[in-house]
Structures are given as structure tokens and as C-alpha cells.
């Protein structure tokens, strides 16, 4: 088989793998929360696992990429907030509403790609923006006439996670030539920095250590290893699949999470949520048609 189709197949498979695991990952974090491990603490330990276990393997790669340390720092902090805010939102809110707000990311991808990758906003880009914003307004519309904004902390966290997810994906694409390993370490370190800051502000999150059993530590370690594999998979895929098309593949996470939420937490969506969801999903699917025009306009991206 020609290496290019094989490489593309592997890249798409990597993104599907990551999307599947992320669609299920909210559940072990909720189990940890029920065991007394708060979202900041669980995020710290689960990201410390791949950072300590695998980070040392990529020391030379990070050294070679030192000339782009500002962008690696930006990637780490953006992806760090994405992952921390995502976990906290999943613990505090409804799985599907959190994911729908998170998957407004095609809207933010269009904007960030315009400034960082110099991709011009074409007709598909405008359609993505209108559909995504329209879907969000429908889903968040308040009967009392209030502005259609997130109504609680979890929804604001989900929205901010989606913004930073789009930003980190575009930065990752911008960091062409930097290895997946170097990017992955930057992401793990970014989560570690943010969660250490959070633990300093909320030291009570570490109280679970006094009574945690081996099952808690085993679950933390298992989630950490899964996150390590997902980070590699995402960075491998993003380096070989256009950012806007990757967003479409990540939508599989929404399907997995919806099925899991139905069976594991008995969550349901109303007609208003379904209408907004359809528009947001359509925006994400439509974003996959942006790349051909953008590549023609900027073939060196």
C-alpha cells in the first residue's frame, strides 16, 4: 500500500480512538469524585502519570524544539485549560450539554485559523459560524427572555474548554516540524502547572490521600495511562489531518458520550437541546468542507 493513504488511515484511526476514549472518560472521573477525589486533584494525578512515566523519553525532542518554546508554552497552557475545564465541567454539569457547548469549537477554530494559519474565511466558514452560534442560542435560550448564555459554572467551563480546544488544535497545526512527543509533554506539563496552582488555592482537594484505598490509586493510574495514549493519538492525527476535518472526527466523542450518559447516568435531552445539538453537529460536519478552498488559498499551511 502506498505510504500516504496508510498514514492518513492511521491518523484518522488515531483521532477516532482518542474521541472514543474521551467520550467515556467522564465516567471514571465521576467515580473518582464519588470516592472523594476532586476534579483538580484527579486531573493533577492523571496527567502526572504520563508526564513522569513518558516525559523523559522526549527530552531531546523538546531540546530540538527550544526555538519555538513560546508556542509550546501556549500549547501547554491552552490544552491544559481544555483538559482541566473539561473534567470540572463533566463533574458539575450534564454530560450532553457540556459536550454540546464544548463542540462549538468549529466556530473558534475558524477564527483562530484565520489569525494563526492565515486561512481565509470562505462561504463554508461563514456557514459554520452561523450554524454554531445559532445552535448555541437555541440550546441556551431562556423562556424569560434572558440572554442565551451558559446558566451555570459547568456550562461556562465547557464553553471555555471548547475555545481552548480549538486554540490548542490550531497551535498544534502551527507547530509543524515539532514532534508529537514534544507536543504531548507540553500538554501534560501544562495541565500539571494549572492543577498545581489549583491545588495551592484549594488544598482541601488533597485530603483524600489520607484514606484513599488501592482501587482509587489504580483507577488514577489507569486513567493516566489512557490519557497518555490519547494525547499521543491526538497529536499524531492533528499533524496529518487538517484542523477543520479533525473537528468532524472528534464529533464521534459526542455519540459515544451520549450513549454512555444514557446508560450510565440516565441523562435525557429535551426538544430544545436536540434542536441546538443538530445545528451544532451540522456546523461541525460542514467545517470538514472548508479545507479544499483553504489549501488552494494557502497551500503552505
Task: Summarize it.
This protein is mostly helical.
Explain this structure.
With 301 residues, this protein is mainly alpha-helical. It has one domain. It contains 14 helices and no strands. Helix 11 (243-250) packs antiparallel against helix 13 (271-287). The radius of gyration is 19 Å and the shape is globular. Residues 292-301 have low confidence and may be disordered.
Number of strands: 0
Task: Catalogue the unreliable spans.
Answer: 292-301
Number of helices: 14
Residues in β-strands, percent: under 5%
| Topology as a string of helices (H) and strands (E) | HHHHHHHHHHHHHH
Proportion of residues in helical segments? over 70%
Rg over alpha carbons: 19 Å
| Estimated structural class | mainly alpha
Cα shape: globular
Largest sheet: none
- Count the domains: 1
- Overall average pLDDT: 82
Q: Calculate the terminal CA-CA distance, rounded to whole Å.
A: 26 Å
Which features characterize this protein?
globular, mainly alpha, 0% strand, 301 residues
Architecture blueprint of SSEs:
Elements: H1 3-34, H2 39-54, H3 59-64, H4 69-92, H5 95-102, H6 105-116, H7 123-140, H8 153-174, H9 180-201, H10 214-238, H11 243-250, H12 252-264, H13 271-287, H14 291-297
Helix pairs in contact: 1-10, 1-12, 2-9, 2-10, 4-8, 4-9, 5-8, 5-12, 6-7, 6-8, 7-13, 9-10, 11-13
Amino acid at each position: 500500500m502506498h505510504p500516504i493513504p496508510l498514514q492518513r488511515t492511521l491518523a484518522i484511526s488515531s483521532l477516532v480512538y482518542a474521541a472514543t476514549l474521551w467520550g467515556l472518560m467522564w465516567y471514571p472521573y465521576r467515580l473518582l469524585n464519588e470516592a472523594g477525589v476532586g476534579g483538580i486533584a484527579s486531573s493533577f494525578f492523571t496527567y502526572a502519570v504520563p508526564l513522569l512515566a513518558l516525559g523523559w523519553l522526549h527530552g531531546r525532542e523538546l531540546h530540538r524544539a527550544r526555538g519555538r518554546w513560546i508556542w509550546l508554552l501556549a500549547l501547554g497552557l491552552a490544552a491544559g485549560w481544555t483538559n482541566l475545564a473539561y473534567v470540572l465541567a463533566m463533574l458539575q454539569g450534564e454530560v450532553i450539554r457540556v459536550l454540546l457547548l464544548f463542540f462549538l469549537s468549529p466556530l473558534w477554530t475558524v477564527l483562530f485559523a484565520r489569525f494563526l494559519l492565515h486561512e481565509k474565511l470562505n462561504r463554508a466558514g461563514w456557514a459554520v459560524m452561523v450554524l454554531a452560534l445559532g445552535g448555541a442560542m437555541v440550546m441556551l435560550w431562556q423562556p424569560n427572555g434572558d440572554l442565551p448564555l451558559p446558566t451555570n459554572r459547568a456550562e461556562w467551563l465547557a464553553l471555555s474548554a471548547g475555545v481552548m480546544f480549538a486554540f490548542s488544535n490550531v497551535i498544534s497545526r502551527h507547530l509543524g516540524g515539532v514532534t508529537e512527543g514534544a507536543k504531548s509533554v507540553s500538554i501534560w506539563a501544562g495541565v500539571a502547572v494549572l492543577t498545581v496552582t489549583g491545588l495551592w488555592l484549594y488544598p482541601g482537594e488533597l485530603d483524600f490521600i489520607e484514606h484513599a484505598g488501592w482501587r482509587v490509586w489504580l483507577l488514577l493510574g489507569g486513567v493516566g495511562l489512557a490519557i497518555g495514549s490519547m494525547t499521543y493519538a491526538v497529536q499524531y492525527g492533528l499533524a496529518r489531518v487538517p484542523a477543520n476535518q479533525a473537528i468532524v472526527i472528534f464529533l464521534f466523542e459526542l455519540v459515544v458520550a451520549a450513549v454512555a450518559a444514557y446508560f450510565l447516568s440516565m441523562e435525557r435531552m429535551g426538544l430544545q437541546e436536540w434542536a441546538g445539538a443538530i445545528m451544532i453537529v451540522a456546523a461541525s460536519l460542514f467545517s470538514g468542507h472548508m479545507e479544499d478552498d483553504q489549501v488552494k488559498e494557502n497551500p503552505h499551511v
